[in-house]
């Protein structure tokens, strides 16, 4: 018997939706088809709240996933949004503005419904960029501007740590003297009681199954914890040790 409290947890957490020189989700096509195919998913419920144009965003996702054999429905089209979540085969939350996205999840009262559907019922959850941010413990490590104010920064908590998508390394040849991404995350880590942060570079993703979180893509990821120096981990690393450590706290 699995020791995981959520043995059926299935997550695909992308750092970004578009990777040069490809189109929308193109670089992740193989990962997405394998991930959804393992659960025989035919229909995906898309949550478009990270952008204001819900229909236009949903149409973009339909154009990408449709040719791969997946039907897409936009959550904005349903009067009873919790019922739509509760009957979904899989959920995909796309990128955009993380604050706007989280506010939408609270405003439409679907945060707990999504969390239960994913953790208690094991349906696949896919996120990219802002959709990856809200899958974590909180949105404190998003790169976005607070254009709206959600009632809380606490998010879906599908994993017990935070993620920084779109992580940018410091350019040693740059004359810019402002704060680097590393400095900003380390400032966050100085706050007492905050969770570790996994920094994902472009084209990187975490595939989570139960209490295993495998780093995929071509680039290493950084792990920030407390006052320790950030540590780099290669593709193929299982960040499942974070589940075990945080469970023990």
TrEMBL record:
GO MF assignments: dipeptidase activity; serine-type peptidase activity
Keywords: Cytoplasm, Dipeptidase, Hydrolase, Protease, Serine protease
Reaction catalysed by this enzyme: Dipeptidase E catalyzes the hydrolysis of dipeptides Asp-|-Xaa. It does not act on peptides with N-terminal Glu, Asn or Gln, nor does it cleave isoaspartyl peptides
Keyword Transferase found: no
Compartments reported by the entry: Cytoplasm
Pfam families linked: Peptidase_S51
Gene Ontology biological-process annotations: proteolysis
Enzyme Commission numbers on file: 3.4.13.21
Primary location class: cytoplasm
Group of enzyme by EC: hydrolase
One cellular-component annotation, GO: cytoplasm
Entry's family note: Belongs to the peptidase S51 family.
Family annotation (NCBIfam families): PRK05282.1 (NF003642)
Cited function: Hydrolyzes dipeptides containing N-terminal aspartate residues.
Protein name per the record: dipeptidase E
Protein source organism: Tigriopus californicus (Marine copepod)
Lineage: Eukaryota, Metazoa, Ecdysozoa, Arthropoda, Crustacea
